[in-house]
Design brief:
253 residues; alpha+beta; 5-stranded mixed beta sheet; 3-stranded antiparallel beta sheet; 6 helices
């Protein structure tokens, strides 16, 4: 649903904010205070402005919003740049009148370039597309939570082992791959884990179980929802268009 100030925003900005609101909804509608705690870099009020304000917030702020919701940073950065370009073009001052004999040289060419840039930016916003994997034929799918179902209640100051099962649904053999935590650096009061966990080599159409040891925060109550994306040895994300996998626990006394 558009925010209360939607009528005061450019359509491109409103569409961008609506996408961020849907991203937050898909992440379980975390409160802005929880998102700020996970970020550790911006306040909850600033994150709130990202989807309610009259202006496009700086990328650094939008990035923290996307990270807190487990979104794809590269995709959202491209969308942010497109909106920024459109809004910048709208703020372009009117050209100073010049004699007709100079108009084609001094005015029409810059305006044509701006128009091309605006059209390209609108296409990026309306048709962002999903980035493909770096290896053609590479694909994966989530199979099951082997241990610790979502919203399991755990004690503070303890450890548990989370296991997922995923499937190599493509034609590329998985070698030297990892799951990388997306909310780095980890905010105070969050569950602690290694930054990356190994994925055993997996043949096409094979299943693999991935294990991580989690330490819960010493104080309760707290909610831990940690997202992970598959990367290679160089930390390159391998499925940028896929949703992350995650675990979610409720830390209670």
């Amino acid at each position: 649903m558009p925010g209360p100030q939607a009528e005061e925003r450019a359509p491109e900005l409103e569409a961008f904010m609506d996408g961020l609101r849907k991203l937050r909804t898909g992440a379980g509608e975390p409160s802005f205070r929880k998102m700020a705690a996970k970020s550790g870099a911006v306040s909850h009020a600033t994150l709130h402005l990202t989807v309610t304000g009259r202006r496009l917030q700086p990328w650094e702020t939008v990035r923290e919003f996307v990270r807190a919701c487990g979104g794809d940073e590269e995709e959202w950065h491209a969308r942010w740049q497109g909106v920024q370009l459109v809004l910048s073009a709208e703020r372009e001052p009117e050209p100073t009148p010049v004699p007709p004999r100079w108009r084609s040289k001094r005015v029409l060419v810059p305006l044509a370039l701006v128009l091309v840039a605006v059209i390209a930016a609108v296409v990026v916003i309306l048709l962002p597309g999903e980035p493909g994997p770096p290896h053609p034929g590479d694909s994966s799918s989530f199979v099951a939570d082997v241990t610790i179902p979502d919203d399991t209640v755990v004690k503070p100051g303890t450890q548990f082992v989370k296991v997922w099962e995923i499937k190599n649904t493509g034609t590329v053999e998985w070698k030297k791959r990892y799951l990388r935590r997306t909310d780095l650096p980890v905010a105070p009061g969050a569950c602690r884990t290694p930054d990356r966990i190994p994925v055993n080599d997996t043949a096409p159409q094979g299943n693999v179980q991935v294990t991580v040891t989690v330490s819960t925060p010493p104080t309760a109550p707290a909610d831990c929802k940690v997202f992970w994306k598959m990367v290679d040895e160089q930390d390159r994300e391998l499925f940028p268009g896929n949703k992350p996998i995650y675990f979610s626990v409720l830390v209670r006394p």
